[in-house]
Write a structure and sequence with these properties.
By secondary structure, this protein is mainly beta. 0% of the residues lie in helices and 54% in strands. It has strands spanning 4-7, 10-12, 18-24, 31-39, 46-52, 57-59, 67-72, 77-82, 91-99, 104-107, 111-115. The strands form two sheets. Strands 2, 4, 5, 6, 9, 10 and 11 form a seven-stranded mixed beta sheet that branches. Strands 1-3-8-7 form a four-stranded antiparallel beta sheet, with no helix packed on it. A hairpin with a 6-residue loop joins strand 4 (31-39) and strand 5 (46-52).
Amino acid sequence: QVHFVESGGGSVQPGGSLRLSCAALGSIPTVQAMGWYRQAPGKQREMVTYIVYDGRIEYADSVKGRFTISRDNVKNAVYLQMNDLKEEDTAVYYCYFNTGPSLSTTWGQGIQVTVSS
């Protein structure tokens, strides 16, 4: 079971920036992919971005050009830099890791991001 340390959420005004961090604790199986989902009130959880072991990155259309995912393979950490935040970005953001040959998925507990004027 992978456990995470998450940080970086909070409240900002539209146009502001936040950086989310998610680091796995201890030794973990080989990471195949890592990324972020989000869930807004009353909505389904949706993919925000992910990065695969070979470096390939995908973004949801709604965040392209504003959000950037990055990773630190030594620290087993994934980051999400969010710029030009909009009110519709308000959600709980969940990091996840796919690990091991079976692509087991482990989710973080969630980080609240609120964008409001």
